[in-house]
Amino acid sequence: METISFTSAGFKTGVRRSLPLLAGLSPFGFVVGLITQHHGLSLLQCMVMNGLVYAGASQLVALANWTHPAPILAAAFAALVVNMRFALMGPVLAPWLAGIKPLPRFISLAILVDHSWALSVTDMRRGGRDAALFFGLGVPLWCGWMLASTAGYLSASSLDLAPRNPIFFGALAAFVALLVPLWRGRIDLLPWSVAGIMSVTIAHMLPHTSWYIVAGALSGCMTGAAIEMRQE
Asked: Are residues 90 and 138 in the same domain?
């Protein structure tokens, strides 16, 4: 097994590669901040939620079900369902994470998001061995997320955006763009198709829930694993 490194050069490379991603992440954070203010949370509550949860998709799902008094268990369960994909994403980086010290490993996982994961997996597949790249990607994205969500919260009182305002498409556009570096060719066609079909099917069968995310992720991962095991 090749030695895994954790260098300042890898961190700097990660920081540089994260900068274009901020263009897609910032509108997402801005929208989360707007919605948080509209649901009556304080600025401190907004910052704590964004800093600790740091998962825009699950936060939007939880806020969509937010009422007064707040449904704590329902909101927490909704966030858990959406974030279960991270339980599938984290082990993919095990070759890197297992080779570094516990502190940087746990901090890196604490700021794990789809964007940093996608670029890190791409680099790892190409033979990269510097785990600091993952850490360098994550830190600026977390900082940008905090700034954008705080700005959205502070701007909520002076903005009245229509539901179909283009800014709300920013998050989805960023996720779609992440598919480009992950595409490996025909080998990905079947798992991605299965995941998409399963997600759409479950979304129609169980509307107004988040189970379609888990169903799509699990079906796609299982299909991909079966294909790779058969090839081996």
From this structure: yes
Length of the chain counted residue by residue:
232
pLDDT tens, the chain, 232 aa long: 468 889 999 999 999 999 998 887 888 888 889 888 877 889 999 999 999 988 887 787 777 667 667 667 767 776 777 787 788 788 889 889 888 889 989 999 999 988 899 899 999 988 899 999 999 999 999 999 999 999 999 998 787 767 666 766 655 666 676 677 678 788 889 999 999 999 899 889 988 766 777 788 788 888 988 988 888 7
Structure-token pair, residue 191? 């798992």
CA 178/CA 176 separation, integer angstroms = 5
On whether the CB atoms of residues 141 and 18 are closer than 8 A, the answer is: yes
Rounded to whole angstroms, how far apart are CA atoms 97 and 101? 8
Write the burial class of residue 164 (CB in 10 Å: 0-12 exposed, 13-18 middle, 19+ buried).
Answer: exposed
Give how many domains the chain has, as a whole number: 2
Q: Environment class of residue 148 by beta-carbon count within 10 Å: exposed (0-12), middle (13-18) or buried (19+)?
A: buried
Q: Measured at the alpha carbon of residue 143, what is the angle toward residues 177 and 183, in degrees to the nearest 5? A: 20
Q: What dihedral do alpha carbons 73, 74, 76, 80 form, nearest 10°?
A: 130
- Coil, helix or strand for 91? helix
Residues 196 and 93 in one domain: no
Residues 89 and 115 in one domain: yes
Q: Are residues 147 and 35 in the same domain?
A: yes
3-class state of residue 130 by DSSP: strand
